[in-house]
Amino acid sequence: MTAGFTVDAWDPAYSAALDAEALAELDATSAELDLDVELPAARWRPVTPDPATAPPGVLLIADGVRRIDARLWTYADGEPDVLPGIAASCAAGIVRCAPGTGAAPVAVEVSRSLFSASPHAADVVTSSAAYRARRAPGSGPDELTLALQRHLTELEVGLAVRYRAEAGEEDLLLVDGPLRGRTHLPRTVGYVKTHHTAYLPAPQAATVPALLPGQRTPVFLMGTSWRRHTWYLRLPTTSDMPWAGIVRCEASADLPLDDLVRLADSLTRALPPLAGVDYKDPRAPQNLVPIGGLEKLLRHRLGDARLLYRALRAAARQTRPTSPRTSVPTR
After folding, report:
1. What is the rounded CA–CA span in Å between residue 144 and residue 306?
2. More confident site: 132 or 198
3. Who has the most CB within 10 Å: 35, 108, 212, 300?
4. Does some domain include residue 92?
5. What is the C-alpha to C-alpha distance for residues 128 and 90, in angstroms, rounded to an integer?
6. In this predicted structure, what is the pLDDT of residue 181?
7. Which of 99, 129, 97, 125 is nearest to 111 (CA)?
8. Spatial CA neighbour of 60 closest among 12, 103, 6
C-alpha cells in the first residue's frame, strides 16, 4: 500500500478553511434543518445554475477589519475597582463590482473605541487619534472582543445602508461573514469562508465534495439561535482536497422559494470569476479578489499600530490616579 497526502491550499499562518473535527463529525449538529426546501433530501445532488439566470448587474461587497491597539485598565478616582479594557481600531468598507467597470472601493469608514465594562470609562484623546468610550457587557477577554466585533458589524451595516441610499442602484450586497445581525438588509447575502461546524447529515454532506467549480448544493433552511437559508458552492481551485474552494452563503429565511433559487443561481455564477488566486492570497480561492484588496486598504487606513500604541501610553501618563488603587483588578 502506498501512502499519500495532500496539502491544504491555505497558508498555515491562518486556521484551516475546514475544521478537521467538523469533517469527522458530520452528524453532530444542534441546528434545526429543513433539507427539503429546494429538492427533497433523498434527491440531493450538485446543482448547476440555470444558464438563463444572469449574475447581479451590480455586486457590492462589504467587509471590515479590526485591531486591538492596546490593552489597558480603567478606573475612576474614589472608586475601588480597576477593570480591564481595550483600545481598538476598526474599519469598514464597500467594493462595487460591475461588468465593464471592474471592482473599486466606494466607501470606507474608520472608528476607534475604548471598550470597558466600567461605567466611568471616558473618551481618550491622544496626539494621534481619539478613542470613544463604549460599554462592554463584561470585563472578560471574550466579552471585550465581542463588543468590538458587534461595533464593527454596526459600522458595516451603517455604511452599507448609507451608501445604498445615496447610490440608488439595484444591487446585491455580499457581506463577508455570517448574515447574523444583518438579516434585515434587503438583497443581502452572507459569505462564510471557513467551516467550524458541520451542519449537514452525512447523506446530504456527501453532495459537498461532489461539487464541481461553479456548482452549488440545494438550498436548505437552518435554525440555530437564528434562522436563515443557506447553501454551499465551490469556487475554482487547484487543490484536490474534498472541501477545497467550498464556501457557504446565507440569505434571509423570509425569501420566497423562487426568489431564493434565483438568488442562489445568480450568486453561484457571479463568484467564481472573483475567486482569489494562491500566488496573490494565502486564503485563495475563498478570499475573493475584491475582499483581499479591500482588506489591504482597510488595514492601511487603520494607521500605524506602533504610533497609536505610543500615543496611548503617553496619554495614560497624563491620567495617573490621584490616590492609590485599593483593590486588585476584577472581572
Report:
1. 21
2. 132
3. 35
4. yes
5. 15
6. 87
7. 129
8. 103
